[in-house]
Amino acid sequence: MTPAHAPGSPAERDLDEALLLAVGLSTPLRPAARAGSGGGDEDGDGKGERDSQGKRAGAHRAPGPVPEHDAAPDRGPAPDRGPATDRGPATDRGPATDRDAAPAPADRGPRRPPTHEQALDQALALVARTPDAGGHRAAPWARARDLAARAGAGRRERTHRVPLADALGEVLAEPLNALTDLPSFDTSAMDGWAVSGPGPWAVRPGGTALAGAEEPAPLADGEAVPIATGARVPADTTAVIRSEHARTDELKGRLYPRREVIAGQDIRPRAQECRTGDRLLPPGARVTPAVLGLAAAAGYDELTTRARPRVEVLVLGDELLTSGRPYDGLIRDALSPMLGPWFAGLGAQVLGTRRLGDDPAGVEELHRALTDSPADLVVTTGGTASGPVDHLHPVLRRLGAELLVDGVAVRPGHPMLLARLTAGRFLVGLPGNPLAAVSGLLTLAEPLLRGLAGLAPRQHWTAALRDDVPGHPHDTRLVPVVLSGDLAVPLRYHGPAMLRGVAAADALAVVPRGGARAGQELEVLELPWTATAGEWSSPGPGGSSGSPDSAGRCEA
Questions:
Q1: Helix or strand run (H / E) with residue 100
Q2: Cβ partners under 8 Å of residue 331, min gap 6
Q3: ∠383-388-393 over CA atoms, to 5°?
Q4: Which of 207, 350, 386, 510 has the highest count of CB atoms within 10 angstroms of its CB?
Q5: 209 in Cβ contact with 232 (< 8 Å)
Q6: Is 387 left (phi over 0), alpha (psi -120 to 50) or beta?
Q7: Planar angle of CA 356, 357, 363, nearest 5 degrees
Q8: Where are the alpha helices (DSSP H) in 385-494?
């Protein structure tokens, strides 16, 4: 950016008018919103006015009133704006509108002429900056997720052999074949009596046949012996009778049945479940607790798996506190406590979290970290835009990294990015605002990690909206919701810098541009700790554990 093109300057206005003229939107526009709100980072590029994650903006427009009818939900940079050398670091061109008062699209009154800012957003949605200017067209949300998944799946797999206890959550790199028959001998399925031939039977003197004991002597015809569940049945056993289905005459030493006895009942025959060499699970199966049990039963002490992806988190910013209350322009680091457990919940091995400054020393430390980190995925927070302390793009250029996704047409979280550092090593740049960072996690980080781990893309789930949800005119929106029965209930606190909504949420609803009506089926992205979050956790119906009103649901 040069000072002549600072936001609101005459040079910038001239550039805006030229762009509008180029796309046929040069009709007279009301100037009221030219200096309206739209601080540099409402969408969450992490470098706006000190927000809850503390990423500063460069120059941004002076505050001014925005008529309610002009408010567009969750506005930010146009989908294809990208970094620009002549427009300044502010990436958010529209007013702050992630508010409860914003009506659903169909509830608006007669359409009024667009403000200058709104018309400019429309123009930028049609015109992409040229590659020579360093710009890009923001990737559509679904395409960005697909690119991330394919990038992860395309990496050469890293396998290792680990003890069963260390394999949980990883993915089988080899088939799980039975090393023995299951069961490996005929066993009793119940506590009771092993009998031979028709009854009544003479009770053989001696002890009970117990699990783990030596093989008992064969039964003679007309003989019975007490037996425990899991014990080897004696040779020539006809059936096992449950304790409650027989009675004994101790004086005569005889056993009598209380109901009909069927040959083979309550006996688990050898190899009933599988024979030696049978394939139990294919490569690519995720190791769950049940898989660990099956592997142990089949004779395994170790498994060959795809190593879980290694993640390192780099939190950028000089203004972050690690304890206590915010003061004097310093704010608490909200992302460090969240990201490590989030990635662990996604099945990744978290190597650690580091905090780096915005000064030249911090930039050099960032360069070294991206060069030397042993992680498969480095995740940064903030610095993804083009403000005065947004150093991520210059460092990536210095490293010769390949930008796979540089901006996504989604709100919040538009300035997120995905880069390939070296073969098999990636970086996901998250915006600094908390909810915008969550958007980046679900859009880029999770699909990439699933690919690196060898898991298929997450299964798509849908739910019907209980209430209308406003949309962005060009971009997808991700809105926190609570799953209540078959309905997705939108939550009130969904601004880019807010965590209150997502903390109470079960999922984020994928709202198409223009918004969605009550009753409309939308895709929902369930959070890693919810009951139906796909293969990373146990499947089952989702639900909220909190009070709908206290969680901040929108009123009907």
A1: none
A2: 50, 51, 52, 53, 54, 319, 320, 321
A3: 45
A4: 386
A5: yes
A6: beta
A7: 85
A8: 392-399, 434-440, 446-453
- The CA distances from residue 388 to 79, 206, 393, in Å, are 22, 88, 12
Residue whose structure tokens are 């010769």: 400
pLDDT, position 142: 95
* Cβ contact 180:298 at 8 Å: yes
Alpha-carbon distances, residue 87 vs 2, 7, 40 (angstroms): 8, 7, 11
pLDDT under 70: residue ranges of the chain: 1-137, 318-324, 326, 331, 386-389, 497, 531-556
Per-residue model confidence (pLDDT) at position 514: 93
How deeply is 55 buried, as exposed, middle or buried, from its count of CB atoms within 10 A (0-12, 13-18, 19+)?
A: buried
Provide the pLDDT for residue 451.
92
Name the residue type at position 150.
Answer: R
Q: Which residue has the tokens 């910013």?
A: 317
Q: What is the pLDDT of residue 252?
A: 87
Q: Which amino acid is at 469?
A: V
Which tokens go with 253? 């030493």
The whole-angstrom separation of Cα 306 and Cα 6 is: 50
**Structure tokens of 390?**
């947004």
pLDDT in tens, 95-119: 333 333 333 344 434 445 554 444 4
| pLDDT at res. 91 | 37
In the structure encoding, which two tokens stand for residue 23, read together?
């796309």
Terminal Cα-to-Cα distance of the chain (whole angstroms): 45
pLDDT for the residue numbered 318? 62
pLDDT computed for residue 54 by the predictor: 37
Give which of 172, 357, 124, 413 is closest to 283, Cα–Cα.
172
For residue 445, the 8-state DSSP code is: I
For 466, the token pair is: 């209980």
pLDDT score recorded for residue 2: 30
Residues 6+ apart with CB under 8 A from 555: none
Please give the helix or strand (H or E) that residue 451 lies within, else none. Answer: helix 446-453
Cβ 408 vs Cβ 431: under 8 Å: no
Amino acid at 515: G
- Phi, psi angles (nearest 5°) of residue 465: -75, 140
Neighbours of 555 (CB within 10 A): 7
Strand order of the sheet with strand 239-242? 239-242, 192-195, 223-227, 201-203, 254-257, 246-249
Quick check: 114 and 122 in contact, CB under 8 A? yes
